[in-house]
């Protein structure tokens, strides 16, 4: 019986540490946009000129992060699918060498239809892997990107997806 209780206790501790039971909330409020995200307590948030970056405290590379950027698209006639196509046809291939799209599809984020793409590329000789989401709500185009070294991508993917899926636009 004691062995069973000890085993159950260890499993509970592992479950809590893996799923990061303790989360924090970050609110981003500007004159045009107001949204919040939840992130594990072992990650940190930096707000840099309107772009929010959330990264694990333990990441020695300091290149694993989820970024959230919002663009006011009230004056454009582009829909988010055209916006996404522009990103992947023109902008991202110029930023990365050996750019390759691995997967793409649709997703719901904060109740709105969105698109995601998984891709790889080299930046400064370093192999990176990304999962980028885009959706529109109101006048805002929300771009959420998870970036990591290719070797660390799977390690942080579940936490990154939880952060991204937690977005609430007010």
| Category from helices, strands and their pairing | alpha+beta
Q: Specify the CATH homologous superfamily.
A: Mog1/PsbP, alpha/beta/alpha sandwich
**How large is the radius of gyration?**
18 Å
User: Strand order across the biggest sheet?
Assistant: 3-4-5-9-8-7-6
CATH architecture title: 3-Layer(aba) Sandwich
* CATH topological fold name: Protein Transport Mog1p, Chain A
Summarize the structure.
A hairpin with a 2-residue loop joins β8 and β9 (140-149).
Structural commentary:
This protein has helices spanning about 1-20, 80-95, 155-165; strands spanning about 25-30, 35-40, 45-50, 50-55, 65-70, 95-110, 110-125, 125-135, 140-150, 170. The strands form two sheets. It has a seven-stranded antiparallel β-sheet with strand order 3-4-5-9-8-7-6, with helices on both faces. A three-stranded antiparallel β-sheet has the order 1-2-10. It starts with a helix and ends with a strand. It is globular and about 40 Å long. The chain has one domain: Protein Transport Mog1p, Chain A (3-Layer(aba) Sandwich), CATH 3.40.1000. The model is unreliable at about 1-20 (pLDDT under 50). The protein is built from three helices and ten strands. About 25% of the residues are buried. The chain has about 170 residues and is of the alpha+beta class. Helices cover about 30% and strands about 50% of the residues.
């Amino acid at each position: 019986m004691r062995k069973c209780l000890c085993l159950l206790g260890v499993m509970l501790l592992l479950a809590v540490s893996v799923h990061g039971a303790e989360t924090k909330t970050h609110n981003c409020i500007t004159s045009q946009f107001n949204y919040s995200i939840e992130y594990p307590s072992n990650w940190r948030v930096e707000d840099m000129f309107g772009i929010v970056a959330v990264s694990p405290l333990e990441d020695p590379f300091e290149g694993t992060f989820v970024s959230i950027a919002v663009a006011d698209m009230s004056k454009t006639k582009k829909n988010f699918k055209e916006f996404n196509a522009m990103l992947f046809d023109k902008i991202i291939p110029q930023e990365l060498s050996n750019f390759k799209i691995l997967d793409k599809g649709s997703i719901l984020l904060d109740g709105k239809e969105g698109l995601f793409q998984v891709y790889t590329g080299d930046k400064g000789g370093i192999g990176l892997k990304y999962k980028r989401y885009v959706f529109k709500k109101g006048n805002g185009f929300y771009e959420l990107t998870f970036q990591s070294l290719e070797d660390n991508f799977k390690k942080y993917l579940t936490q990154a997806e939880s952060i991204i899926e937690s977005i609430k636009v007010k």
